[in-house]
């Protein structure tokens, strides 16, 4: 346990100091940390899931509080919680096949278990999962008590099925933790391979002689473009440099190294050039439940320009970027202001920036935000590792990955913050 | 052409009424000042106009001087603005009064009585200045001797100018000096029209014309005078001239195509002539092959070594060229002023070589200077306008002037242009714009526009409480200079990058932008990034006010930022000034696949612009063609 504590503290520090760059790395490290937290958690004989959830939540809250703007942390914490619930459910169902135990944490599950004691484990899991979610056509169908056939593999819980079968064999006490860790491992795997999965779809979206514009740098975008290039598509890329971090230079360099004709432009030239561009492809920092995007600064401008010229604005986002929250005033609340030194030379303007001199308030303020909010109406398409989606569908996609119970996590975290 | 002409004669008064005095117009004007209303009505019947008007001679021309159809359009357009901003109407009418020599003389004359009122009304603004610096002041040097006694001062000014033009182009057929002076004046005007029309073609012949005294001018009926046998014929003829001249002018005034740099043969030709040795950039941006893409930094040392070899180039011009090249002088106004100061120097030191005439030789000289400056850095539209003005002035120099007088006239013209069109225009804009700043405003500006800076400082001096957001972008980072100056004066500023503009825009209440040029379709051609800022402001429903002097208005049109633009130094893209940690592209700049594009300007569509503040007043972007037209009349046809 002290071992985990040290890990958690270390990670907290990194988050606070913004040492971890990129939501993918953050997500992966969060998942790994939570995995070790789970494995270190001593579980009581009864109500194991609750104990696991408890410990994960405790760590998760602190992680989120450390960097509330890095939504990937919260996303992964919620995903892990969701995994625990799912695993618990499937185990419960498996156990209920024999004895009707009610040692599960969720009271809805009790009700379900009572009503349908003889259903297969997977079916119960699916049914109980459905109660956690808003009703949909699929869950309505699943409620029909016709489970003689092979249980459905629901899109979300594909992994839970295999485990639920094996759950029959071994005792539940050891099994839950083991299963959860397995599932978290799969999550980590998913996060680290999301680029490839997104990139696989590149050829479906990029045609010959296409002109693509992007801003800043995103590994997803790089892989996406390179995948298309490897499939012998020839196209041209305009890269806006993405001041003040100038990640665009990095992307341009990578693209040139892979033999793509690349033109580097300043951010201000985006409007001038977008009329000659066929498609805008960008990465995201996070995708909100309403289909809005928290993206690197400058993208709102690009999205507006793209809309003006009717250029498709495509956002690439791995699943760990899907956030189940709805944004409120995201330009301020989900933003982060970086150091003015990136914009102004302190040496030149030190006298103006000084709070101590004169009347107290400095004459000069420097605003250097990290993120921009792109409203859903400006986004044409999301490409995630499960395929392309409309902005209006994102809430549904997100509902597959998170359980409604865990949304509270954020609220508690922020209030505790 | 003949049938059309005769048709015109028939419908003449009506057309005139439509063109300048549509039913809607007189009441509106009457409400602004009653005396004016009278005049148009009277001038409808030529006879009564003759009786009543101050300048009968001028007015007698009116029946034949029909505004060509396009004018009608633009005039109605113009009127729509009138309703928007009354000071501007007043002004532009007075402007017309000042310098319309020919076809609109009727208007001029009819308006002239009320001119006083007009200028008084808009006394806060430019017109005053304008009136004070009416060409008459300089041009009286020629002679006003033959002006009809009844003529008003204003009309006198206009006609004097006409007289001056005459010897340049008209044949000097000495005829009966006893002709009615009114008639003479008509002739003079017609000749002026012809001069305007044939200014280019006839320049040579005109130069060799006998220098005639001012006194003989009115009597000298131009060659066409033989044609007019009776009154009706005269009318027809004059109408023809009156008609055709603007048409031809129109054709001529259509901006001629610029040099396209993807035309290899022409580029080669141009290179042979060029003073500046240019080497092309290795990785030219495909999309911009039609624009010059030269290595930066190589020309300067080369030119410096050539300093003493360049015989024909005046040192002052040379210096300005180098300053353009090195980027020491930037900003539309600064560049224009520097250019004109250099030209002034050059004119001062100019002496006509033997066997040559001043008008032709000096024009050629100026042209060579201009092409040198273009090699240093492509001209902006505003400079194009300024050069046109100067050349026009040279071409219209009366031959009677001695060399020193001509030089003095030109130099004072140059000074007048700088003073009126830039310095005072800026002041007028500031006066207009300050009325749009309220306490508690958050004003956003992009880049560093000299006019916007003056506006902000002036508003601050007036004690208005507001905050300024300075948005900046790479690679020039001009905003930092502006920021420095504003903060020094004690303005509260926020500084940010163009990328963050959508984050900051929520708190902004007004956006003030400068412009390099305003094109006649309402497009604002300005520092790259202006379009982005205007677009975001538009998306956030923040009004966008563009501040631009009228001499920067241009009759070109442009829809995108690609067909015409200027490319800066690509090196500036790969290197981030002051950020040594950004070195990803070191050693990559010469990669074949990598192109660095440093656009200097972009075109902001007119739908993003709420208002253009100019020295003529505050206008919507749809009224830009009117300003262009008025300006051209005032300065290029005069």
From TrEMBL, chain A:
Residues 160-171 have a biased composition (Basic and acidic residues). GO terms for molecular function: guanyl-nucleotide exchange factor activity; translation initiation factor activity. InterPro entries: eIF2B_beta_subunit (IPR051855), IF-2B-related (IPR000649), IF_2B-like_C (IPR042529), NagB/RpiA_transferase-like (IPR037171). It comes from Hibiscus syriacus. GO terms for cellular component: cytosol; eukaryotic translation initiation factor 2B complex. Belongs to the eIF-2B alpha/beta/delta subunits family. Keywords: Cytoplasm, Initiation factor, Protein biosynthesis. The lineage of its organism: Eukaryota, Viridiplantae, Streptophyta, Embryophyta, Tracheophyta. Residues 148-175 are annotated as: Disordered. The keyword Cytoplasm applies. This is Translation initiation factor eIF2B subunit beta. Gene3D superfamilies: Translation initiation factor eif-2b, domain 2 (3.40.50.10470). It holds the Pfam family IF-2B. It is found in: Cytoplasm, Cytosol. Its main location: cytoplasm. It comes from the Eukaryota. Component of the translation initiation factor 2B (eIF2B) complex which is a heterodecamer of two sets of five different subunits: alpha, beta, gamma, delta and epsilon. Subunits alpha, beta and delta comprise a regulatory subcomplex and subunits epsilon and gamma comprise a catalytic subcomplex. Within the complex, the hexameric regulatory complex resides at the center, with the two heterodimeric catalytic subcomplexes bound on opposite sides.
């Amino acid at each position: 346990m002290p071992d985990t504590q040290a890990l958690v503290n270390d990670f907290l520090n990194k988050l606070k100091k913004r040492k971890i760059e990129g939501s993918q790395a953050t997500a992966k490290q969060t998942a790994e940390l939570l995995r070790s937290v789970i494995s270190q958690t001593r579980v009581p004989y009864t109500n194991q899931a609750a104990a696991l959830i408890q410990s994960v939540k405790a760590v998760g809250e602190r992680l989120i509080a450390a960097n509330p703007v890095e939504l990937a942390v919260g996303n992964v914490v919620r995903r892990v919680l969701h995994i625990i619930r799912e695993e618990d459910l499937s185990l419960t169902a498996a156990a209920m096949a024999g004895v009707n135990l009610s040692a599960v944490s969720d009271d809805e599950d009790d009700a379900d278990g009572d009503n349908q004691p003889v259903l297969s484990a997977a079916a119960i899991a699916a049914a109980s999962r459905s109660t956690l979610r808003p009703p949909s056509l699929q869950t309505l169908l699943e409620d029909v008590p016709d489970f003689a056939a092979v249980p459905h593999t629901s899109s979300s819980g594909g992994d839970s099925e295999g485990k639920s079968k094996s759950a029959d064999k071994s005792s539940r006490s050891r099994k839950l933790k083991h299963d959860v860790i397995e599932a978290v491992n799969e999550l980590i795997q998913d996060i680290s391979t999301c680029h490839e999965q997104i990139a696989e779809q590149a050829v479906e979206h990029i045609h010959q002689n296409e002109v693509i514009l992007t801003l800043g740098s995103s590994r997803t975008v790089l892989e996406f473009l390179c995948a298309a290039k490897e499939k012998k598509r020839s196209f041209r890329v305009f890269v806006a440099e993405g001041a003040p971090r100038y990640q665009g230079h990095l992307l341009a360099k990578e693209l040139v190294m892979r033999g793509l004709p690349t033109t580097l432009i300043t951010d201000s030239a985006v409007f001038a050039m977008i009329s000659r561009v066929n498609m805008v492809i960008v990465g995201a920092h996070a995708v909100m439940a309403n289909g809005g995007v928290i993206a690197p600064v400058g993208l709102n401008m690009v999205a507006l320009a793209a809309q003006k010229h009717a250029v498709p604005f495509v956002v690439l986002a791995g699943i760990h970027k899907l956030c189940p929250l709805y944004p409120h005033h995201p330009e301020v609340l989900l933003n982060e202001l970086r150091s003015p030194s990136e914009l102004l030379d302190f040496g030149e303007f030190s006298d103006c920036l000084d709070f101590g001199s004169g009347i107290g308030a400095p004459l000069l303020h420097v605003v250097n935000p990290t993120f921009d909010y792109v409203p859903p109406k400006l986004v044409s398409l999301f490409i995630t590792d499960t395929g392309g989606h409309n902005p209006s569908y994102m809430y549904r996609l997100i509902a597959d990955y998170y359980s409604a119970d865990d949304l509270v996590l954020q609220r508690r975290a922020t209030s505790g913050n | 052409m003949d049938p059309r002409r005769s048709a015109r004669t028939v419908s003449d008064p009506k057309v005139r009424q439509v063109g300048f005095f549509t039913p809607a117009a007189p009441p509106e004007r009457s409400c602004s000042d009653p005396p004016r209303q009278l005049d148009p009505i009277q001038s409808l019947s030529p006879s009564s106009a003759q009786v009543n008007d101050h300048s009968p001679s001028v007015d007698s021309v009116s029946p034949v001087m029909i505004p060509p159809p396009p004018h009608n359009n633009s005039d109605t357009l113009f009127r729509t603005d009138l309703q928007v901003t009354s000071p501007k109407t007043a002004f532009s009418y007075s402007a017309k009064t000042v310098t319309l020599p020919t076809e609109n003389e009727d208007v001029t004359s009819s308006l002239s009585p009320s001119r006083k009122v007009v200028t008084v009304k808009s006394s806060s603004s430019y017109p005053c200045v304008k009136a004070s610096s009416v060409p008459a002041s300089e041009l009286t040097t020629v002679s006003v001797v033959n002006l009809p006694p009844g003529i008003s001062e204003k009309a006198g000014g206009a006609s004097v100018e006409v007289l001056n033009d005459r010897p340049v182009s008209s044949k000097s057929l000495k005829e009966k000096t006893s002709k009615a002076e009114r008639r003479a004046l008509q002739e003079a005007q017609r000749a002026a029209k012809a001069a305007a029309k044939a200014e280019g073609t006839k320049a040579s012949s005109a130069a060799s014309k006998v220098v005639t005294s001012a006194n003989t001018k009115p009597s000298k009926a131009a060659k066409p005078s033989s044609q007019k046998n009776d009154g009706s014929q005269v009318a027809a003829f004059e109408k023809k001239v009156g008609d055709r001249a603007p048409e031809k002018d129109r054709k001529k005034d259509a901006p001629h195509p610029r040099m396209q740099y993807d035309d290899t043969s022409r580029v080669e030709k141009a290179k042979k002539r060029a003073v500046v040795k240019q080497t092309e950039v290795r990785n030219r941006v495909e999309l911009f092959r039609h624009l010059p893409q030269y290595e930066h930094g190589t020309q300067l040392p080369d030119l410096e070594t050539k300093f003493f070899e360049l015989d024909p180039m005046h040192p002052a011009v040379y210096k300005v060229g180098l300053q353009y090249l090195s980027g020491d002088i930037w900003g539309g106004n600064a560049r224009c002023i520097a250019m004109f100061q250099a030209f002034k120097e050059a004119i001062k030191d100019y002496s006509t070589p033997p066997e040559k005439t001043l008008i032709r030789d000096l024009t050629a000289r100026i042209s060579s200077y201009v092409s040198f400056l273009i090699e240093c850095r492509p001209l902006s539209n505003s400079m194009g306008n300024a050069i046109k003005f100067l050349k026009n002035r040279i071409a219209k120099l009366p031959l009677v002037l001695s060399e020193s007088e001509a030089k003095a006239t030109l130099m004072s013209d140059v000074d007048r242009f700088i003073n009126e069109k830039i310095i005072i225009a800026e002041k007028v804009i500031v006066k207009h714009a300050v009325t749009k700043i309220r306490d508690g405003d958050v004003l956003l500006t992009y880049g560093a526009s000299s006019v916007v800076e003056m506006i902000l400082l002036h508003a601050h001096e007036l004690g208005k409480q507001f905050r300024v957001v300075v948005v900046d972008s790479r690679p020039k980072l001009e905003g930092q200079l502006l920021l420095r100056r504003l903060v020094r004066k004690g303005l509260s500023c926020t500084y940010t990058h163009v990328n963050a503009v959508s984050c900051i825009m929520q708190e902004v209440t007004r956006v003030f932008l400068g412009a390099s040029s305003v094109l006649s379709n309402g497009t604002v051609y300005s520092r790259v990034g202006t379009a982005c800022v205007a677009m975001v402001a538009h998306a956030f429903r923040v009004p966008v006010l563009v501040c631009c002097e009228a001499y920067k208005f241009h009759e070109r049109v442009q829809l995108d930022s690609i067909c015409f633009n200027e490319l800066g130094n690509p090196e500036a893209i790969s290197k981030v000034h002051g950020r040594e940690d950004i070195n990803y592209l070191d050693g990559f700049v010469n990669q074949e696949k990598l192109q660095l594009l440093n656009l200097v300007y972009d075109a902001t569509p007119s739908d993003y612009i709420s208002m253009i503040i100019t020295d003529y007043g505050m206008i919507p972007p749809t009224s830009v063609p009117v300003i262009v037209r008025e300006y051209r009349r005032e300065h290029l046809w005069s």
